[in-house]
Design goal:
By secondary structure, this protein is of the alpha+beta class. It has a domain of about 130 residues: 3-Layer(aba) Sandwich (Aminopeptidase), CATH 3.40.630. The chain is built from six helices and ten strands. The strands form two sheets. It has an eight-stranded mixed beta sheet with strand order 2-3-5-6-7-8-10-9, with helices on both faces. Strands 1-4 form a two-stranded antiparallel sheet. Helix 1 crosses helix 3. The longest helix is centred in the middle third of the chain and has 16 residues. The mean pLDDT is about 95.
């Protein structure tokens, strides 16, 4: 239900999703400073100072009550407390009961299913806890890893907007993927 206040970390079999803290600066900087991570993101590779500033803001974002409210959560392995990436969750439209998810992961930990496991936990938050109607993801369709993740999450490809935004000095496309609460339940994904 909305409002939702993030007070307790979300735990999965292998992961903890929690608010970021200043102790996460080096771990987040390790991957957000990489060109291969920033390539499909709206940001350029970030320096340590920018990461510190972002984490300070993200650590304060705890309440989902209005359109555009968001959470930016650290994804941490439970067995060794290593931060492997981050997940983004925002109320895209309160009126239409829609959220958006996004992700950024350290490539050193790719291929382990952490993005899928963490994103499924956010879908559970959206549908089970917040009782939302729809969750979507907007991404650069050239990002094959993100496209495959959306499909693993049970999302359908809804749209492909051609050269709809200026992205890092050139026109770029946007892909839209989404899943409805009833589709998610019917798919057996939860």
């Amino acid at each position: 239900m909305i409002p939702f206040v993030f007070t307790e970390p979300i735990e999965t079999d292998r992961l903890t999703l929690r608010l970021m803290t200043l102790r996460d600066i080096d771990a987040v900087h390790a991957y957000q400073s990489l060109e291969e991570v920033a390539r499909y993101q709206l940001f350029e590779p970030r320096d340590r100072s920018t990461v510190a500033s972002k984490i300070a803001a993200w650590s304060e974002a705890t309440t989902l009550e209005h359109t555009d409210d968001y959470l930016q959560l650290a994804v941490v392995r439970r067995h060794d407390d290593r931060l492997v990436g981050d997940l983004y969750f925002t109320v895209k439209s309160l009126e239409n009961s829609t959220a958006e998810v996004g992700w950024s992961f350290n490539p050193d930990f790719s291929g382990n299913g952490y993005a899928t496991e963490g994103a499924l936990a956010l879908l559970s938050l959206a549908f089970d806890t917040m009782q939302l109607h729809r969750v979507m993801a907007e991404l650069d369709p050239r990002n094959e890893s993100s496209v495959k993740l959306c499909l693993r999450l049970g999302m359908r490809h809804e749209a492909h907007f051609v050269e709809d935004m200026m992205f890092k000095g050139q026109w770029a496309d946007t892909g839209v993927y989404a899943v409805l609460e009833r589709e998610w339940r019917d798919s057996g994904t939860p």
